[in-house]
Amino acid sequence: MSSPFLESLRREMRLRGYSIRTEKTYLHWIRQYIYFINKRHPKDAGQDEVKSFLSMLANDRHVAVNTQKVALNSLVFMYHKALNMPLGELDFSLATKQRTLPTVLSASEVARIIDQLTGRNQLIIMLLYGSGLRVSECLRIRVKDVDLQRRALTIHDGKGRKDRQTLIGESALNNLKEAIEQGISRQREDNLHGIGCSVPPALSRKYPNAYKSDAWAFIFPSSSLCNHPMTGTLCRHHLHETVVRRFLKPAVQQADVTRKRVNCHTFRHSFATHMLAAGTDIRTVQELLGHNDVSTTQIYTHVLGRHYAGTSSPLDALSQ
């Protein structure tokens, strides 16, 4: 059972429209901070304690710099938005982070993994690779987000709470049409029992019958019903990410792709790298991936070796 203070933070985040994922992450780091200050109320601590906590994460727990930044964002939300106690400038040591290149599969490796799968599972991996999706974005796709005629896919509320459009691979269209029909069929069956897909609370208030609409049906609905985490209403959510991880691992092994660490995000990395290798403009790839800054997309040019364009190894000169 959460404390009244943490529950008040939860209500504040929901009032501001934060996602469930963000809510859980922020509350996790706020709890860690409260334990760090010996369970004192955060209003009785401040800038010095926050600096010490963030430095501890870097120096003692050796967290990655991005993890440290998430912890900082959590505490900034608590102090600035909830307690109205701005922290001001914080002088603390950032966690050190070596630049690591993402794992990228070859086209043949991707094809071998996809060939090990069928039906719904195969379509999920085809979309991760063919559209450059994060797994959470893929599983949240609704019927209304798919434009089969234009082969376009709209991603709503992606990372950074941004919307974007990306492309759909032609070879995924037939599987996608079938998934849409199955998603709508499941939705209509649920509607017969007064149940429907989960929808954001604000939207359900504005459009109380949205859960009955084919357009809002999930392409990848969960096999079981659940209570909505915010409203408590019985509904059907989309598949959980763990489902994808469970079927992906044996598929990778059966495809004999054992020398690389493959996870759901590997297919997004492969999408970007293969697009650039095919000559696609980096700005286009940036937009398809939904990156805020092109510098984030540029990591894939390092995978390709494009930053060495026009140069050659001195070893090659020895044979001339």
Automatic annotation (TrEMBL):
<feature type="domain" description="Core-binding (CB)">
    <location>
        <begin position="1"/>
        <end position="83"/>
    </location>
</feature>
<dbReference type="InterPro" id="IPR013762">
    <property type="entry name" value="Integrase-like_cat_sf"/>
</dbReference>
<dbReference type="GO" id="GO:0015074">
    <property type="term" value="P:DNA integration"/>
</dbReference>
<dbReference type="InterPro" id="IPR004107">
    <property type="entry name" value="Integrase_SAM-like_N"/>
</dbReference>
<dbReference type="InterPro" id="IPR044068">
    <property type="entry name" value="CB"/>
</dbReference>
<feature type="domain" description="Tyr recombinase">
    <location>
        <begin position="100"/>
        <end position="313"/>
    </location>
</feature>
<dbReference type="InterPro" id="IPR050090">
    <property type="entry name" value="Tyrosine_recombinase_XerCD"/>
</dbReference>
<dbReference type="InterPro" id="IPR002104">
    <property type="entry name" value="Integrase_catalytic"/>
</dbReference>
<dbReference type="GO" id="GO:0006310">
    <property type="term" value="P:DNA recombination"/>
</dbReference>
<keyword id="KW-0238">DNA-binding</keyword>
<dbReference type="GO" id="GO:0003677">
    <property type="term" value="F:DNA binding"/>
</dbReference>
<dbReference type="Pfam" id="PF13495">
    <property type="entry name" value="Phage_int_SAM_4"/>
</dbReference>
<dbReference type="InterPro" id="IPR011946">
    <property type="entry name" value="Integrase_integron-type"/>
</dbReference>
<keyword id="KW-0229">DNA integration</keyword>
<protein>
    <submittedName>
        <fullName>Integron integrase</fullName>
    </submittedName>
</protein>
<dbReference type="Pfam" id="PF00589">
    <property type="entry name" value="Phage_integrase"/>
</dbReference>
<dbReference type="InterPro" id="IPR011010">
    <property type="entry name" value="DNA_brk_join_enz"/>
</dbReference>
<dbReference type="InterPro" id="IPR010998">
    <property type="entry name" value="Integrase_recombinase_N"/>
</dbReference>
<keyword id="KW-0233">DNA recombination</keyword>
<comment type="similarity">
    <text>Belongs to the 'phage' integrase family.</text>
</comment>
